[in-house]
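About this split. The held-out portion is used to measure sequence recovery: a designer receives only the structure tokens and must propose an amino acid at every position. Recovery is the fraction of positions where the proposal matches the reference. Here is one held-out target exactly as it appears in the evaluation file.
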């Protein structure tokens, strides 16, 4: 059974009790393999990226990270935008190790602070799929559907 989590993360990076292992992102505006190649080249310049697998038919990129590296989601998004495209879907796979979450209660994990919303109190263990719902990480339509009343600068809204 798949559960959905919503997270607002302040200054999103993961350390200690959580580690991003990979992300799937979907880009819009791609029309050919040259477009896909330009995003691929841009993403490879990030020092925390280990490997990239692109699927031109679905406009998706699977990006895996170097172990124990600092992963910056904003830098990934910026590289896609700098290549001339936009992100319309962004899903991170994060390994949690005994992280207690409570609805609407801030949680600091490493140097990151999260605000989980629309969830039941629970302990997170193992790899969880977290979909970022912030503006610029999803389509404008999905962003409107998932807009939250909390608008803190540098935050990420997410679901798993």
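Reference sequence for scoring:
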């Amino acid at each position: 059974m798949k559960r959905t989590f919503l997270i607002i993360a302040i200054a999103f990076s993961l350390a200690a009790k959580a580690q991003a292992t990979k992300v799937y992102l979907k880009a819009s505006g791609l029309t050919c393999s040259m477009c896909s190649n330009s995003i691929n080249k841009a993403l490879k310049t990030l020092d925390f990226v280990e490997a990239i697998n692109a699927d031109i038919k679905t406009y998706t990129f699977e990006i895996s990270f170097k172990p124990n590296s600092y992963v910056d989601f904003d830098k990934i998004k910026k590289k896609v935008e700098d290549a001339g495209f936009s992100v319309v879907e962004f899903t991170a796979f994060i390994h949690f190790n005994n992280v207690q979450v409570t609805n609407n209660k801030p949680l600091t994990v490493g140097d990151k602070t999260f605000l989980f919303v629309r969830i039941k109190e629970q302990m997170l263990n193992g790899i969880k799929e977290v979909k970022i719902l912030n503006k610029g990480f999803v389509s404008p339509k999905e962003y409107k559907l998932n807009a939250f009343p909390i608008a803190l600068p540098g935050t990420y809204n997410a679901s798993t």
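Annotator remark: Residues 8-16, 149-153 have pLDDT under 50 and may be disordered.
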